[in-house]
Write a structure and sequence with these properties.
By secondary structure, the chain is an alpha/beta fold. It has a single domain, classed as TIM Barrel, CATH 3.20.20.150. It is 39% helix and 14% strand. The strands form two sheets. The protein has an eight-stranded parallel barrel. Strands 8-9 form a two-stranded antiparallel ribbon. The radius of gyration is 18 Å and the shape is globular. It starts with a strand and ends with a helix. The protein binds fe (iii) ion (2 copies) and zinc ion. The site of one fe (iii) ion has 3 residues, from loops.
């Protein structure tokens, strides 16, 4: 069975997201842990979370994916911003334990003028500070398109971070199809080659989730503008190969395409129809 969902708004609570997911034919979803531009997280509503957990169990959802705010930059040159990143991540991971055994994804960060080595050191240092042996959440680094000085535009940079994390079994990778295509991994013409490269650099056992997006921009554009499925340069044929690939087909797929709920419902229906 295809495990697929999309990004949903947290504003009406957790159970509301579960209901929305079921309504659009999804069996998982992604959500922001707080306002994507940062800021304080809402108070924890245990009843709401328990309600969602019951829905997850009853409907056999795949793992959920939480997404950290975009403003989080664990490798900023500014110490206050790094400290803020640690506090946000620590708080989010504590909250994630109310929905145990799910996934938490963040953008590694932008090193600006400090260079990749300094950036990687900050990010790994932060992870070593906040990961706990008893946590049930797996923390994922997202593959990035390579806008500006984003870390994670190639598999080697992610591996450099992972290789320095002590509690490595708490870590994994979320692969964003739009981002890696924009970064210069040709998933349209050579999906097998890209996956072989991922396997040799990071290891496919570290791949936990896929952000399934088409791209508004051509190969290696380093732009990061998501398109609806089949409305971009990746196209439905390549996306069909991705969701059916033997090394990917059992992972959870998350749409981050520019859609409202009805548009997501249509994309999910389309993808289910091409899943063999
Ligand atoms: Fe992201
Ligand atoms: Fe993404
Ligand atoms: Zn993106």
């Amino acid at each position: 069975m295809l495990h697929i969902g999309c990004h949903l708004s947290t504003s009406k609570g957790y159970q509301h997201m579960g209901k929305a997911a079921l309504q659009i034919g999804a069996n998982t979803f992604q959500f922001f842990t707080r306002n994507p531009r940062g800021g304080k997280a809402k108070a924890i509503d245990e009843q709401d979370l328990a309600g969602l957990q019951a829905m997850i169990n009853e409907n056999e959802f795949a793992k959920l994916l939480a997404h950290a705010p975009y403003t989080l930059n664990a490798c900023s040159a500014d110490e206050r911003i790094r400290k803020f990143a640690i506090e946000m991540l620590e708080g989010d991971l504590a909250r994630m334990e109310y929905l145990p055994h799910n996934l938490y994804n963040f953008h590694p960060g932008s090193h600006v003028n400090q260079g990749v080595e300094v950036g990687v050191t900050f990010i790994a240092g932060m992870l070593n500070q906040i990961l706990k042996p008893e946590q049930t959440t797996t923390v994922l680094l997202e593959t990035m398109a390579g806008k500006g000085s984003e870390i994670g535009q190639n598999f080697e940079e992610l591996q450099q971070i992972l290789s320095r994390v002590k509690l490595i079994d708490k870590m994994g990778v979320c692969l964003d199809t739009c981002h890696i295509y924009d970064a210069g991994y040709d998933i349209v013409n050579d999906l097998d080659g890209v996956l072989a490269e991922f396997d040799s650099v990071i290891g496919l056992e570290k791949l936990y989730a896929i952000h399934l997006n088409d791209s508004m921009n051509p190969f290696r554009s380093h732009k990061d503008r998501h398109a609806k499925i089949d409305n971009g340069f990746i196209g439905l044929e390549a996306i069909t190969r991705i969701i059916n690939h033997p090394q990917l087909r059992n992972l959870p797929f998350f749409l981050e395409t520019p859609n409202e709920l009805d548009g997501y419902a249509e994309e999910i229906k389309l993808l289910r129809s091409v899943y063999k």
